[in-house]
Specification:
two-stranded antiparallel ribbon, alpha/beta, four-stranded parallel beta sheet, 29% helix, disordered C terminus, globular
Length: 216
Amino acid sequence: MKYDYHMHFEYGDYDVEWVKGFFEAAQKRGLDEIGISEHSHTFPEFQQLYYDDLILDDSFVGSFQQKWLKRNKFKHTLEDYFAFMAKLRSLGYKVKTGIEVCNFQNQAKVREILSHYDFDYVIGSIHFIRGWAYDSSEIKAEWQNPPEYDGYYSYGSISCSLVYVNTLSGRYYNRNTGEEGYADVTVYQCHCTESGGRRDTRSNRVIDKYSIKSCH
């Protein structure tokens, strides 16, 4: 079975004619099913969490992120989303309802928001490191400041805090090599490494080690 559960409607609207292209493209590529995983920044229910977590000062990063939050964000409620997805299924489209949620610090609030809706799956994505949206190409130069190892250490720590994740995705894509394809996926609630550490990428010297409680 081939499927792709990582798609977004955010650059269009909740309009049947517009989203037909997703299903036509999926059929041409031999997919059996697709899932829509709208970003949490589509929904006003998550708006305050972005303003709480992101750097929004007058710095280069802060100025960019202020503008980013005002561009095509928070335009549909979760009720709107579920109503539109139900409409698509009533028209015969085979589609799952998912969501891609950022790694907010207030996980209790995330749980509370998600608990009111019957999602088919949830993707937890690490889009921020200490308030910096590190994967935005417009501010990628910030990888040079702070030192690289510090960023990777933070990334590893955050990844184990997203314990609400239960994600399915048949499609994979490697940003570094450009490789993509489809793979069989086993679903887990959460996997964390038992231990880790920081390594200075310039000297290859281990700076310290830390332990992380495993979760499943």
